[in-house]
Amino acid sequence: GNGGNALEVRGLVAGYGRIEALHGIDLEVGAGQLVALVGANGAGKTTLLRAVSGLIKGSQGGVRLFGRDIAGDSADARVRAGLSQVLEGRQVFGPMSVQDNLLMGSYTRPEGREGRLEAMYALFPVLKDKRLLAAGTLSGGQQQMLAMARALMSQPKLLLLDEPSMGLAPLLVREIFAVIARLKAEGIPILLVEQNAHAALSVADVGYVLETGRIAFGGPAGELLRDERIKAAYLGL
Ligand code: ATP
Question: Is the beta carbon of 44 within 6 A of some atom in ligand 1?
Answer without folding.
Answer: yes
